[in-house]
Amino acid sequence: MKITASAVSLTVADPAASAAFLVDHFGFEQVVAADGFASLAREDAGMSVVFLRTGLASLPADQRDEHAAGLILAFVVDDLEGELARLEGEGVTITMPLTPEPWGERAFQVRDPNRVIVQLVDWNGEVAPEYR
């Protein structure tokens, strides 16, 4: 098997709102859009993000009414504090403050208009001895 591209597809009530959030605040570009569908990309993201409207007939019956939940759309960034300040300056509500973990990860979270969690992460925190 050779993988030529990767994407994560999320079912949400309003794909256009989630797409606009990633375009406006995270620099994604909308590549394809149709009624109930939006595909976004960033050259440096390593994957595409697809939003599908819940209830789409093209989805298998057991998935149609499921909302993207229990997952985190995470992006590792170079300047975590800078991104936090930028998003706050843009009026984005921070739903989890910048939090250091003992294994060296630092992260904060926001939610898009469909409540999809977007987390920005770096690995610049202090690593506790038990994680070395």
From TrEMBL:
InterPro entries: Glyas_Bleomycin-R_OHBP_Dase, Glyas_Fos-R_dOase_dom, VOC_core. Residues 4-123 form the VOC domain. SUPFAM superfamilies: Glyoxalase/Bleomycin resistance protein/Dihydroxybiphenyl dioxygenase. It comes from the Bacteria. This is Putative glyoxalase superfamily protein PhnB. It comes from Actinomycetospora succinea. The lineage of its organism: Bacteria, Bacillati, Actinomycetota, Actinomycetes, Pseudonocardiales.
